[in-house]
Amino acid sequence: MILVDWSRLLTEADGYETRPPVEEDELAAYPELPPQLRKLYLVSDGVFNRYGQWFLVWPLAELAARNELSRAEPAAGEEPSRAEPAAGEEPSRAEPAAGEEPAARKKATKLLAFGDDGTGGRFCVLRDAAPGVFLWDPFLATPRWLANDLGDFWLGWTTGTITTFDQAA
């Protein structure tokens, strides 16, 4: 889903509260926000789950602090795992050279958390606006791919086709 009508999607989802939108000048302070996330914030400054009583999408003011906290924690894993690697990508399993930052830490800093599942798992996109929405759970070895983009993630989450619990358990 490339073109997303966030106004329609957010109002059609039952159990979620929107907030007043972020102004364009406020977004200027966050140049690292990928375009899809910027468009969402221009419609609602976060999305609150009324039933679970948490922000599924954090208010913009919380993004910086929550992402700084994420970077200070030990890296959760090596690289976001996709159903298939992106073109030209090969997983790197080599040990870092002395004094070099581990690949897991480098990849974790490429993720931008924008919300959570209410249990500690963070929803993330890649800072470079590459496709994908990921779950970064501190208990998982690597971030897990959830959807191709933010629109697909929202539809999947609100219809129950995307969840963060292990269905095999």
What does this structure look like?
The protein has 169 residues and is an alpha+beta fold. Helix content is 29%, strand content 17%. It has helices at residues 6-12, 24-27, 35-41, 60-72, 103-110, 150-159; strands spanning 16-18, 47-49, 54-57, 111-116, 122-126, 133-136, 144-147. A four-stranded antiparallel sheet has the order 4-5-6-7. Strands 1-2-3 form a three-stranded antiparallel sheet, with no helix packed on it. It is globular. The relative contact order is 0.17.
The unreliable regions are 72-78, 81-97, 100-107
Beta fraction: 15-25%
> How many β-strand runs?
7
Please give the radius of gyration in angstroms: 16 Å
Strand ordering within the main sheet: 4-5-6-7
Distance between the termini: 30 Å
Biggest sheet features: 4 strands, antiparallel
